[in-house]
């Protein structure tokens, strides 16, 4: 029994154990205040579902040997275009959600392929280059949003009749489609069934792919390029597969995020998308060279739940409204901590 507990401890890792204990302590403190613990956990479930796909997008990029995908905004922009096309045509419910995906996924494939061509030329510096690519794409698209050929009055500026607004609401189109699907409440805890099921489906499909022949070959390329060359594997081709898959997941992730959040935030909205996702996957136990679907799931659960619970509890313990200050401290503190876990979080 003792050996089994020790094995579980080593498998879970000290950093994740510390974060879990801290999270449990926050929940206990919340229970002793005026806060509704079921309400906090309900919000956490929503945040897990709407941010989880971004974290999943890190897995194929890492497994392919391209490291953490700091160029996540490349895929996010593709998803953003899909959402705008659905909104432009005033598509409602699942129809709008599906059309957004059908537009976002092909754009994600194209953008991911072009992005992979660049990263294959700068092998060994992918994370630094990816960061600049993500920032550059977001800045470049700011110009596009001002000249985009959209005509729906709900999307464009009322004065001048051209250029997309900064924040667009999805309440009148397909906002909350997944969240409301099969939603139920138990002991005051609201479960967004559709959102979590969709996230679980993508996680399962990615898990299957990583165990398929192309997935295993991609992992070999990422772990040992020399052995991959000796085995006759095309390194750049399999690296491209991982980068494209990561970009496509990011595009799907934005569509899911937007419908769950209820708004589409253009211009600088997707600028920092990659950093919370990177932090979550590292907190979950991944490294810059190896990641599993389980790491992504554990990471997003810990990161988003802690972020959801910490701010209201802090406001209750300290007089005055410091929710924004607490959010910045907690989120950036966890990101900073996670970025030091380049070995996969085995150290304390």
Characterization of this structure:
The protein has a domain at 37-270. With 348 residues, it is mainly alpha-helical. The chain is built from 15 helices and four strands. It has a two-stranded antiparallel ribbon. The protein has a two-stranded antiparallel sheet with strand order 2-3. It has helices spanning 2-12, 14-31, 37-56, 58-63, 72-88, 93-121, 126-147, 177-180, 193-210, 213-223, 225-230, 235-261, 274-283, 293-317, 323-339; strands at residues 167-169, 184-186, 189-191, 263-265. Helix 6 packs antiparallel against helix 12 (235-261) and helix 13 (274-283) packs across helix 15 (323-339). 69% of the residues lie in helices and 3% in strands. Strand 2 and strand 3 form a beta hairpin.
Structure summary:
The chain has 15 helices and four strands. It has 348 residues and is mainly alpha-helical. A hairpin with a 2-residue loop joins β2 (184-186) and β3 (189-191).
Topology, pairings included?
Blueprint: H1 2-12, H2 14-31, H3 37-56, H4 58-63, H5 72-88, H6 93-121, H7 126-147, E1 167-169, H8 177-180, E2 184-186, E3 189-191, H9 193-210, H10 213-223, H11 225-230, H12 235-261, E4 263-265, H13 274-283, H14 293-317, H15 323-339
Antiparallel strand pairs: 1-4, 2-3
Helix pairs in contact: 2-14, 3-9, 3-12, 3-13, 3-14, 5-6, 5-7, 5-12, 6-12, 10-12, 13-14, 13-15, 14-15
Features of the shown structure:
348 residues, disordered C terminus, globular, mainly alpha, two-stranded antiparallel sheet, two-stranded antiparallel ribbon, 69% helix
């Amino acid at each position: 029994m003792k050996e089994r507990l020790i094995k579980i401890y080593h498998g879970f890792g000290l950093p994740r154990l510390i974060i879990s204990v801290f999270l449990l302590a926050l929940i206990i403190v919340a229970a002793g205040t005026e806060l509704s613990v079921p309400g906090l956990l309900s919000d956490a479930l929503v945040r897990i579902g709407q941010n989880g796909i971004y974290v999943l997008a890190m897995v194929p990029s890492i497994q392919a040997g391209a490291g953490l995908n700091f160029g996540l905004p490349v895929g996010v922009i593709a998803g953003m275009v899909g959402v705008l096309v659905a909104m432009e045509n005033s598509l409602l419910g699942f129809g709008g959600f599906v059309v957004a995906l059908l537009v976002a996924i092909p754009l994600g494939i194209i953008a991911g392929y072009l992005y992979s061509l660049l990263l294959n030329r700068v092998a060994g510096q992918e994370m630094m280059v990816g960061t600049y690519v993500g920032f550059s794409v977001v800045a470049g698209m700011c110009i596009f949003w001002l000249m985009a050929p959209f005509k729906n009055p709900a999307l464009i500026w009322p004065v001048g009749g051209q250029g997309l607004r900064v924040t667009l609401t999805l309440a009148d189109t397909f906002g909350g489609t997944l969240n409301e699907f099969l939603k139920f409440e138990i002991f005051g805890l609201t479960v967004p069934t559709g959102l979590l099921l969709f996230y679980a489906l993508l996680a399962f499909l990615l898990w299957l792919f990583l165990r398929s022949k192309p997935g295993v070959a991609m992992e070999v390329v990422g772990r040992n390029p020399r052995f991959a060359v000796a085995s006759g594997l095309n390194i750049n081709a399999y690296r491209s597969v991982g980068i494209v898959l990561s970009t496509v997941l990011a595009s799907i992730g934005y569509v899911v995020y937007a419908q769950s959040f209820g708004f589409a935030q253009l211009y600088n909205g997707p600028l920092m998308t990659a950093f919370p996702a990177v932090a979550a996957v590292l907190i979950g136990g991944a490294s810059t060279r190896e990641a599993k679907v389980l790491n992504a799931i554990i990471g997003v659960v810990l990161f988003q739940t802690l972020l959801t619970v910490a701010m209201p509890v802090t406001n209750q313990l300290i007089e005055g409204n410091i929710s924004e200050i607490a959010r910045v401290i907690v989120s950036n503190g966890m990101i900073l901590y996670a970025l030091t876990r380049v070995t996969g979080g085995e150290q304390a």
